[in-house]
Every structure is written in structure tokens, then in C-alpha cells.
Sequence to fold (453 residues):
Amino acid sequence: MAKSFGDYVRKRREARRATDDAFSLRQLAQRIGVEPSFLSKVERDEVPPPSEAKVVALARELGEDPDVLLALAGKVSSDLQQAIRKRPELFASLIRQLKDQPDYAVLRIVREVRDGKW
Amino acid sequence: MIELKQDRLVFRFPDVHKDATVSVEFQRTLRIPDDGHHYPLPPGLGRFPIRHVDDFAGRVPERWIEHGGVMLPMYQSEALWVNFSGRYPCAVKVAAGKIDAVTGKALGAGLARRPQNYLVTPEQPWLDGYCVEKGVIRQFVAMPLGAGYSAEEQITGAAEFGGLQIVVHPMTAEAYERLRRLRDERVMYRAAAPAMALTAAGMTMGMGLAPGGRMRQEIFTDPHHLEDWDQAQTNRCFVHLANSLVWRHVTGHEPPTVPPTAKEYSKAGLPWFEYYGAGESAVEGSGILAKLKSVVQMGKDKGDVPLPENESVSAGPVVELRKGLAKDEVREGRF
Fold:
């Protein structure tokens, strides 16, 4: 079980590298636009996680959910931040109300794709 | 329930099992030449944007609102492939214009074995087209609904539905737990892994999927028992295909750019892909789908040239995915 952002990223990258050299530290760093030495430090948790944009790019490359990776990085995506800023009291209250609810209860309020008559 | 999350359809069955989730996304890709040759798998060029049709009532056809679901933009003669991800086994039916892409029959209720009318995830990582022969598909290529090219129009004689339809049944919780106990703990990796104007006269904005070029892709037979699928649990989604040229008018957002041609892609030396199953057998092709005319063949009959840039290409280099790997060891994506 990965303990930190860096550890999680390293484990995922290495799993991909087992079958694909495109997931070497150097090549992945190049694709997300950072220096290999910086990505290496990120993976060793020697520096804080990178910016939101880089975390999202990493998630896309590794096939991970960007929200999950952002959460591991201690960040909240800017679109969520905007939504909260727009109605802070409402969303703060909503999150506090739901934080201990089981998944199925939370999923009830997620917008579903509506099915119609085919 | 189905959630639209970051241009992915997330099918969840929380009443069946907490892990019972499969994600479906639609990848942009290049159109392989429709020239009778067999091509390897083309790359994924990113996800198509997806929107709820309900958000654009009044700007999309009323029938789309009636069908519900979502929509995505495609240019005429653009191709796509469907990418599945998730560990929990699911039986997935994929239809285009309500024609089953595996059997060529009308999309009906329930799962069938002879012939198999569904795909099994996670064994089947993706689907690129209509299953015309064992190990061969014809690529999904968007053509205007009503022009006569789509599989739906060729088979039913009517341009009634268009779009894509996805129906998912999860594995029963009991079968899933049994399977989990049977399997070794191995790395199970999920990868994230493709011109016309809306006139006052009311050009159809809907697209249908027609059979394009031939590609090597196996549709794997179901390795589980039919009773392992919970057919009482169903999530289904109608995916409408909107002509990219009207996407901006409808949504206010630009559609993705036109993908590169197969010639441009090959000239750049970029990779194609071959996928090797871990001993899974493949279903036979559909006799109904095998008889369909490809877009180019249909165009010849109509005295039309429906596919620009259709020259044969030499595909390569080819990346071999999962070759020699054991079942469940690693599942690789295309990128």
C-alpha cells in the first residue's frame, strides 16, 4: 500500500514500466514537462507534490483518476475550488453532512446520466 | 447508476458490490484505410468530450432528449474506439444504431451465448468496430445518419436511432468473490489505458457508425458461466453522436481538432498496436456484419467518394501489448 504521493506515483510508474519503457523516469518526466531529477525527488517525497496541472498530467499518463491523485497530493482541483468559492456555506455544509455517510448514500446525490425511452 | 466523470461514463452497481464499477470512454483515433487490407490497432488520441443531452434541450433533436443519455462530437468519416476499464467483471453490450456490434442482430434484452452478444471486461480492454470475422473487425466510422452508410441503415433499411448504445450487467457478488479467491494476487493494472453545415433546411446533426477498414482485433469468448452475470441489474446509456461542425453551435465549445490521417501518422513513424489475449479464445464473426458494405464499397455504389485520404499505408512500428503475459498479470493501454 502506497503511503504517500511520491510512493504511490513511483509504484504506479514502475508497474507500467514493467512492460513499457515509455514509463522510464526520463521519458515520463519529459511527457509531463518536468526535469527527470525533479520527478525523482517527487517520487522520493523529497519535494512537495508538483502543481495541479502537473499532477493531472501525471494522472493522465499513468491512467489514474486525477481527483484521486490530487487528493493524495493534498490538493483540490481548481474547478472544485471555484464551485466551493461560489457557494462556500452551502458546499461546506454539504460536505460536512456527507463526510461520514456510506458511499451509496453519497452516490444518491451524484448526477446520473438519465436514461430515456429508446 | 451511470455518472459522467471527466468525459468517462462510470457504470456503478453499488447494490451488487462495492467494487462493481466499470468505466467506458470513447477514444479519438485515426481512420484506417478502407482498402481490404488488415491493419493493426491504431492509437488513442485522447477522449472525446461528452455532455449530458439534457443540458442542451432545444438545441438537439427532440428524440435525443427522449432517448436520454449523453452526446459527443464526431466529424464525418472520423473513427472512434471504445475503451473499458475497471477490475470488476462486467458483461457489456455495445450497439450502434441499436445493432449489436458483435452479432449484427437488433439490440435485445439479456445476454446470449450462441452467438455471444456481449463483451467481457476486464478481459476485453477495448472495441474498435463491428465484428465481421473471427479476429477481424471493421472500424467504427461516423457517417451522417440518413446517408445510407451506417450498419443500422444497411441492416434495417431505416435511419432511426444512430449513435452508440452501451448496456452493462455486472457479475454477481457471489461469482466475483469466488473468482477473487481463485486468483493469485498479482499486479492488476488498469490503464487509462478517435463537412457539413447545419442549414436552415435542417440538416441532420446525428451521426451513425458505418463499417470502415479492416483491423485485427479479437472479441474474446466469455470465460465465466452465464449464471455468473447478474442480469437483473442493468445500466444502459444512449450515446448520441453529434456532427462536430454543429458542436460549437450546440454547446458553445469547440470540438476536438480533426485527427491526423493514417498516412500522416505512419509517415511520422508513430506506433501501431497488437494486443495478445492470455489464452482467451475469440468469438466467430457475425455473418450479418460480414455482408455489410464498407463505407468505400457503399460509396462506389452511390458514385460518391465518402472517405478522403484513403490511400493504403504501411503500418509500423507495431507495439505488441501483453504478448507472453499471464492472465491478469498486466493489462496495458494504448497511448
About this structure: Chain B touches chain A at residues 1-4, 6, 9, 12, 14-15, 18, 52, 54, 65-70, 85, 98, 161, 165, 187, 189-193, 236-238, 321-322, 325, 330, 332-333, 335 (CB under 8 Å).
